[in-house]
Each structure stands twice: as structure tokens, then as C-alpha cells.
Amino acid sequence: MVRLIITRLSTSIVSLIILITLVFFMVHATPGGPAYSILGVKATAKAIAAMNLKLGLAVPLPRQYAVWWWHLLQGRLGYSYQVNQPVALLIRVYMLNTLALYLSAIVLGTILSIIVGLIQGVYYDRLAGRIIGGLQLIFYALPSFFVGTILILIFAVQFRWFPTGGISDLRIENPGIFVYISHLTLPVLTVAIVSIAGLSRYFGQTVREELTKEYVRTAAAKGVAFPRILFGHVLRNALRPLVTILGLSFPYIFAGSIVVESVFSYPGLGWLLWQSALGQDYPVISAIVLLIGVLTILGNLLADIVNGLLDPRERFD
Amino acid sequence: MSAILKLDDVSVALRRGKARAMPILDHLSLEVSAGKMLALVGESGSGKTIATLATMRLLPRGAKITGRIMLGETDLLTLDEPAMRRVRGRDIGMIFQNPLSALNPTTRIGAQINEAYRTHTGHSDRAARARTLELLGEVGIPDPAARFDDYPHQFSGGMRQRVMIAMALACSPKLLIADEPTTGLDPLVAKQILALLTRLRRTHNMGVLFITHDLSVVEEYADDVHVLYAGRTVEAGTAADFFAAPRHPYSQALLGAIPRLGQARLLSIPGTLPDPEQRPSGCRFAPRCAWAEPACAESYPAPQSLGGTTAACRLIAHIPPFVASTNVAAGQGRQSHAAGTLLEVENLTVRYARTNTSLISSLFGTAPKFTALDNVSFTLGKGECLGIVGESGSGKSTLGRAILQMVGYDGRIILDGEDFTALRGAALRRLRMSVQVVFQDPRESLNPRLRIGDSVAEPLKFMGKSSAARRQAAAGLLERVGLSARLLDVYPHTISGGQAQRVAIARALAAEPRMIVLDEPTSSLDVSTQAMLLNLLKDLAKERGLSYILISHDLAAVSYMADRIAVLNGGKCLEIGPSVALLANPSHDYTKKLVDASPQLRPSTGSLQISQSIQSRQAS
From the centroid of its chain, how far is CA A82? Predict the structure, then answer.
């Protein structure tokens, strides 16, 4: 198990180095360079040269690359052009909001997917399984902004149980746990509902396949009752591929966050990314891209480690 | 002797989807006694596994079972599910063919055995642990306490089967059902498992229902034999009577299909097993039987007893009886191959990087290596068949892959004067075409999305033949391997395993190779199908001057096919020599052990005489 972690960790570090290098070049590939984006189309050549000097872009590329690393290791991500705040500070606030939203959505979505998938896998040829299969297709086809809007219409506009959006309330220092939860509920439900459709279908298929495996017949031949076969034997084996899929779905969930956070005006990374993209705020964009990359790598690392815990064959000992 | 299990006129029909229930097993009656082993023998499709699943009431939903299945005084068919669950594992233990997939891969073996015990006794985990350790010791797992927390993948195939047996024995059942427990195991390991089962059933006075497709496996161990064909009993009797004088033509054919040392030609059964939907109303074997008369097709023959066994055959009195003979011409010489050398393998060494090495160590080439083949040298003559035998992990498959240039190696492989390592580009590709391969699992090795005709014709594409010419050539090749040209346009999943393997052979022939590597070509097939394929391969070799490298753990099949045999162990070649001499007089201890574990190699039965009598009958 220790070897698994070390091996996967070394692979992750290599991926990180490649990612950071890619982001560095991405910033330099912006049309006209950063100075041009800051000063605008009417900037003179002289002003651009001065800005390049100020931004540290006048030195040779290898040196800039080294400085980029040096700053990164100190946690310095530059200044936002738009709000003139350190990017690191800006991101810390928005990232916490995003993590709160997505971690709760993933936990809720996964638990529900497991329950729905188990029912579907066991009763795949019965009415219950068919109804679940049909619902999955319908929900899979619904885009997240549609689900979010419907939820807002029903629970915020009609019943007034939850707020429609969150941006102003959450900017208050220490808004209190209940305000926080009331702002989180609808976005979390939206993300969970959208992810359950695909995840539960996948998990249901895995459960159905696992149930035909020979070890299930062995357990039945031992006289083990069906619920115990399902929860004691099948569940753990079926979870493995689900964990892999979850690890891989991190970037997609973040990509979807732009839409969901916009619908709810939720101050998360997706919303920040959208705003920064509109204002061509490159330092913020590159920092967010870097962060999403890091989270994706961490997500996969975590999935590998959980798989190692679930399946002894994955451990390298 | 008291019967533990008694099947009385049991029939099973299975329903697939909405289709009408299809009879799979008809009117099966048998008895397993305490401390005895009954071998239920039949090829795939005979209904033998269905019989055991019916006994355990583990058939899929929609299955219909009629008759009586008596366990002592209880008819299992009258029990409800909770009562039946108490029977499973407590009164009847069961072990399966492939212990790796039959054990839960993510649960420690100790916990899996504990579960079997706790399910029926309600004991605590601690009490169960003591019982489990005792069981592991009894089935011969060294140091049970240390292995208790290991997972199935950490055991070898034989040890895994011992774990399965320990699990089945947890509640000291009266009956053990063993469904092909030794199929797929190396002969040495299979022998140990059979010896273990024999010892256990004697010490526990436990009945054993042993399912197998291979009569040679049970010859030494069974007390009774029961042969099924297409869902019906064809012959039953004590093992002593049965092996001394099998009466039914199908039983005789099954025995004749088993390769034995020094045998000139295997007996193969013409035709194929009828579909459950299209079973003949009379004797089901009649369409394939050498002695069949028109009357055989009219009604199912009543069982008749003769010479100890009971056989369902009208003509039992007319079929030549068994001629006992202990003197088979073991030294039947094979023609020498003066035609010259085709393949030279010099100092072949293959090292694999161990899997699961870290990225860093693989980047810098510091990953530990494992030597799969160690300095192996031999030659293969034109038209010769060289058998490569050894246990799993001996390096025999690696040898085949090296000859096929599918793995990197040190040393030289020279085909007809041309060195593979010295060639590049088109010349290398041309040379590689002259070595073809047939793998173990024919279905896995055919692309499921390609029609049979396209699979066979694929090598011809590389030779630049037109589409029409390819199709014609593919039809000719299929015909040569005994298949109809009708199969050109069907997909692999619609044909049987034996047919699929013929297709694989046809595909190998399409490239007009000079030699074929046969990697366990018949290991996943029934005995009679194996006989047909081995005969076909022999004919093709003679007809086209082909050379073979035959890789197999089945010494009997190798002894039938090979002119010379090389014995591999731990990546080293222990000895190499002419088949008959090597098997009759093994110089190495390891070879001796291999020979001892292959009952078919003892030329003590008279199956040759049977096969000759049927062959002359088939010829006329």
C-alpha cells in the first residue's frame, strides 16, 4: 500500500510539473502578450515596453520560467488586472465556496447513485429497473442550467424556501451556517441530480455484471442469504470502477461549474473564471486553470488510493 | 451402502427470455453413496453442470425441475428458500472449476472460509477462526495462520483450489459436489487435488459428485461412472466395470478420443452435438454413431445391463466388446525428418520487467527484471512437431511469443537461414508471415466484429490479393479444415468452440506459413473436439510439410502429436528428446513427475482396440 502511494505520488508530481509548464506557456501565448491585454488596443509600443519591463516580461524566456516557478513555490500568483488584488487571495475565497458546493454535491450524488444503482442492478429485468433506466435517460439529457432554473422556479420563486442567488449575502463576513446552507442547497441539488443520472446508470450496470460473477455463485452455494451476498460481496467489487469514474469526472464537474454557478450567481471558481474571461484577466484565468488541473490530479490520486484500499490486487505488495 | 444423494428421474427445462422452456436434462437418476465418488461425465452441452445446479437449487429464475432429489430422507425440491439455504454449505459443499474467479477477489480467504462456517453455526468470528485454521491445515495449506489474511490472488492455482475445498468442508457436509475442479490446472497440481479429495472423502465418509468432461481424469479415483450425452444418461456403472468394458458407443468413443502414448490416430466422433431444440427423438447419439441402424432413430433405447454397466443402446449385444490388452506398441517409430532444419533457436533469454514498477525506476531502467526464459537452445526440423511441456510459469508461452517476435529477447532465432534480429522493414514482415500462431481460446482470438470469412482472409490482404480471390481462398481454407463455406458470412459468436478453433487454424494457414506455434490449442475444448483438431493438425502437417511448436501442459496430447519433446521448468530447458523415448525413460526427476501425473501415458488400457474397431466401422 505504501508503495502504491509512493508510485502514484511520483506520477502525480511529474504530471504537475508538466501542467505548470503548460500554463506558463499558455499565459505567454495570449494574443499580443499580457501587456497588450492590460493596456488595450490603443497602447503605444513604448507603453507596452514599459509595461513588459514592469511585469518582468523583458528578460529571456528561461529566466521568466524560473521566476514563474520561484513565485509559484511562494504562493505568489500575480495581481488581478480587474480588481487589483493578489490572485492568491481572490482565489482562496472563491475556492472555498466551490469546494463546499462540489464536495457536498459529489458526496450526495455518489450516495444516491449507489442506492439507485443497487436497485437497478438487482431488479434490472423488473419494472423498478426499467423505470429507473427510463428516468436516467431523461435526466441525462437535461442540461444543468435547465435543472437549476427549474429548481429555482419551484423552490425559490414558488415556495420561497431558498434564495434564488447568493452573491451579495455570501460576501458578508461570517454569514452564519444557516445562510450558507440555504445558499448551497439548490446548487448542490442541481449538480447532484445531473451527475446521478450517469453515475447510477454506470454503477447499476456494474452491479448487474458483478452479480453474474462466479464468486457470487460460490457465496450462494455456501448458503449465504442474498442481502448479505449483495452488501458483503458484490458492493465492494462494484465500487472500484465507480471510484475510477469519479476521479476522472473531476474536470467535467468543474467545467460544468461555470454554468451552475452562473445560474445561481454563486461566488465560486466557475463564476470567477467566467467574470475573468470576460475581462481578459489572464493572471486569474491561468491561476484557475492551474488550480483545476491540480484538483484533477489530486482527484485521480485519491481515486487510485481508494481503489487500492478497496481492491488488494491494486496494492503493489 | 447407504445413498446420501439420490436423483430420481430428474428433468430440467430452462427458459431464456420469453421463449418456451427448453429441456436441458431428461430423466436423470443417480446415487452417490457415503465415502464414494461418482464421476458424472459428459462434454459441454451434456447437462452435467445443470444437474449439479439443480441439486443445489441454484438454477436461474424460470428453470423448471421435475422428479425427486433426495438428500437422505428429504426431497430438496419440496424445500422453501430459507430451508434450502440451510442445506447449501451445511449438508452439501460445492467447489468449482476456476478457483480464481470463484473466490471473491477483494476478501481475505480467512474471512471467506469463516463466512461458510458462521452462516450455519452462528459462531463468533473468533471461534470460526479456529475452525478455519484447522481446515486450512487439513487441506494442506502450509502455515495457515500466516495465510489467513491473504487474498486469493496471492495463492497459486492449486492452493486456491485447496482454499475452495476448505471452504466447502467448513460445516463437514455429507456430500461434496466438485464441478471440474482440476480442469485448467497443471497435471501435477491436478493429481494433488484429486489425491486430497480422495483422502478427505475417506476420512469424513463424505460422498463426492465429481463432474468432468475428461474420463482419463477420474479413471483412478472414481468408484462409479455416469456418462451423459445431450441431456440423457447413456451409460452408468461401477468404475471398475466401466473402464474394463465400456459398452455404449459414445463411452467407447470418448475413451478412444483421449490421446495415449504411441497411438497412431485418435478416434474422433463425426458430426456435432445436437442443439437442445433439435435433439433426435430416438437415440440421441444415433446420428453420430458408427453402428446406428434406422431403428435407433425411432425411440429412446431402454437401458440394458451387460457386463456390469447399464447402457442405453439397442445394439449393445452387437457392438464388439472391449478387448483387454496391456501391450500397446509403445515404440511405434515415427518417420525421421531428414529434410533439414527449419528453425534454430540459440541461447534464447527473455527478461520481463516486473509489473507495478514506479515511473521513475522504469524511466531510468532500474526496475527489477524477471527471467522468463534462460538460455534456451534447440532446433526444429522441416515437417517436425516439437512439443514444449512444463507447468504454468515454466516459460513455455514466453518461448512461443519470442518465436513469434512478440517479445524482445537476447539470443538468436533463425528461420531457414534468415536471422530475425538481422532483418528490418519489409523483409522482417515477410519473414514474420511464415510463422503463424493458434491460441488457446479460439473465441477470444477471433475479432467478434469480423465475419469468419474476413478473419480468415485477412492475411491475404497483406499479400495484395483481390477481394474476390480472397473470398475464394478463404472458402477453400475453411473446406480444408472441415468447415462449410456457409460460415464465410457468419460472426464468431454463432459458432462452437471447436469450429472457432478450426477457423483460427484456417486463418493461420492463409498466410502460407512454414511453421505454426500452437499455444495450448485444445486446452479449452472437449475431448472429442480435441481429437478432431489434433487429427486435423497432423494431416495438415503431412500434407503441407508444416512444422509445429506445440505448447501444452497436457502431456498426453503432446505425446500424440510431437516427434520430440522439450521439458521446460523455471525458464530452463531440462531435457529434450524423441517423444516416446523421453516419456518412457525420463532422465530428469521433474519429467518423471510430469509423466506420473498423466494417467493417459500409461499404456495399460485397451482403448486402442476400441478405436481401431470403430475406425474400421467408420471407414466402411
Answer: 25
Say yes or no: B217 and B198 in one domain.
yes
Across the range B389-414, mean pLDDT stands at 91
Instruction: State which residue of chain B sits closest to A3, comparing Cα positions.
Output: B358
Shortest distance between the Cα of B504 and any Cα of chain A, in A, equals 28
Q: Is residue B95 part of a domain?
A: yes
Instruction: Say which of B58, B85, B168 has its CB closest to residue A225.
Output: B85
Q: What is the pTM of this model?
A: 0.83
DSSP structural state of residue B78: G
User: CB distance from A213 to chain B under 8 Å?
Assistant: yes
Whether the ipTM is more than 0.95: the answer is no
Q: Which domain holds residue B369?
A: 338-434+515-602
Instruction: Tell me how far apart the alpha carbons of residues A193 and A116 are, in angstroms, rounded to a whole number.
Output: 12
Provide the shortest C-alpha distance from residue A113 to chain B (in Å).
Answer: 22
Using one digit for the tens of pLDDT, what is the confidence trace for B510-565?
999 999 999 999 888 888 888 888 999 999 998 889 999 999 988 888 988 999 99
Domain tally for chain B? 4
- Produce one character per residue of A43-75: b if its CB has 16 or more CB atoms within 10 Å, e if not: beeeebeebbeebebeeeeeebeeebeeeeeee
Q: Report the 3 state secondary structure along B393-422.
A: CCCHHHHHHHHCCCCCCEEEEEECCEEHHH
A-contacting residues of B 37-76, CB under 8 Å?
56, 58
Q: Which of B346, B253, B251 is nearest to B306 (CA)?
A: B251
Instruction: Tell me the per-residue pLDDT of B405-461, one tens digit each, with 9 for 90 and over.
Output: 998 999 999 998 899 988 888 889 889 999 999 998 888 889 989 999 999 998 888
Contact with chain B for residue A160, Cβ under 8 A: no
